[in-house]
Amino acid sequence: MLKNIIDENVSIDNINKPKLLDQLRSAIRTRHYSIRTEEAYIGWIKRYIFFHHKQHPNEMGEAEINKFLSHLAEKENVAASTQNQALCAIVFLYKHVLKKEVGDLDLVWAKTSQKMPVVFTREEVKKILRHLSGTYWLMAMLLYGAGLRLMECLRLRVKDIDFEYNQITVWDTKGNKDRVVPLPQTLKNHYKNI
Question: Which residue has the higher pLDDT, 51 or 5?
């Protein structure tokens, strides 16, 4: 069998080499990126490869990257942030896994949304909170009152809440940072009366 592999001009170094996506996962985990980033990057690299009919990224370069990212903007009409995430995934692959420079990209950029964010009024928030109870009410209060992201709220532990200092410590937030946020007074008063 080894003779057949050598006869087919396959390098012995490549026999035990992990697959591309496994190499990508390893590079992401080595740099301590979040699991969400890993999932997103793997998804984008798969789409990039399938877009080019399963051609290996090592055989592609600037032209193929431009074509894929421009396709996202022109044909799929993705948001600018979505296109940027795809670009980051591809650049990460080339830089940290394939050890190749991407070069200059001349692509069609997705248009940045000019919409103003929709923010609930205090009365609208009160109406929503009145329809919630138990764990759901508590989570909504933390999301709204403390400005927590959903995953930050879900990972929160009882020991992260400091009633004496009126603060919540949020660990490993976006960008692997820790932060302290104020404990909503309404939440504190609610549980003080129980």
Answer: 51
